[in-house]
Amino acid sequence: MIGIVTFLSCVGLIWAEEPFNHKVHNERVIGGSNAEPNTWKWQISLQYDSYNDGSYYHMCGGSIIDPFHVMTAAHCILSTNPSGYRVVAGEYNLYEYDGSEQFIGVDRIIVHPHWTGDLGNGNDIAILKLSDPVYDNGYVAIADLPPPEQMLPHDFTCYITGWGLMDYYGTTPEILQVAPIRVVEHSVCSTPEWWGSLALKTMVCAGGDGVISGCQGDSGGPLNCFTDGSWRVHGVVSYGPAGMCNQWKKPTVFTRVSLFEDWIYSVSL
Fold first, then answer.
1. Residues of 104-134 as b/e, b for ≥16 C-beta within 10 angstroms?
2. pTM of this prediction?
């Protein structure tokens, strides 16, 4: 098991990679479609300046949880130096300036204390403290979170959003993608034919139909679910299968937000 998880953390397709040749390295949800403009307002693009020359690259997604804090995946943190990162709120088309964007530096990176770098051990969550607050320009919103410890029922439809890979060949979009994705409850996802022991109760599985999935570049982004009368972020994109992302009975795995809220609030005060 440890060997498999180590393999996933190195080459699994829902992993943040340092880009190599594009000004903006953007990849998208598999099986998705263009999101409507000015929707999913809590979604951000986490970008990294790997050469310290002002050339930022999309690496991961994330969610605005208050004006000064963004939630993302721990495995998106390639450097503990916050000066290399920026958050783009109100982003829609990564190749164009839409006039809705807010470009904000990162002041502090807070990785969950039990994150080990091994995706199979869970705790794949981090909070970014911003150098300036996100302000309400009509294109951003603060994400609602679920009640503590809430579990979603099997087959519940949520939506994954992001700029992740579109297919195995690396086709990339410009525009934020969205796709409906169904929850696979833990009792199913943890069976041997699904993710087995790699699926922990601190995770949410969704997908596994061989059609829709998250993929590389979607890491850290939200699992958006309409519960209790509001859209709420129930998950943070964590990992998926090596090779093709949209594999049968290998759903996208998210960090389960409802089990981390005490920690989230303790570090974002």
1. bebeebbbbeebeeebbbbbbbbbbebeeeb
2. 0.90
Residue tagged active-site, from 25, 69, 75, 234? 75
pLDDT (tens digit, 9 = 90+) per residue, 181-213? 999 999 999 999 999 999 999 999 999 999 999
219 has catalytic annotation: yes
Tokens, residue 213: 């999935």
The alpha carbons of the chain give a radius of gyration, in whole angstroms, of 17
Rounded average pLDDT over 3-30: 37
Query: What is the amino acid identity at position 184?
Result: V
The answer to whether 112 is a known catalytic residue is: no
240 close to 12: Cβ distance less than 8 angstroms: yes
- Is 186 annotated as catalytic? no
pLDDT tens per residue, range 250-268: 999 999 999 999 999 999 8
Selected catalytic residue, list 9, 25, 124, 218: 124
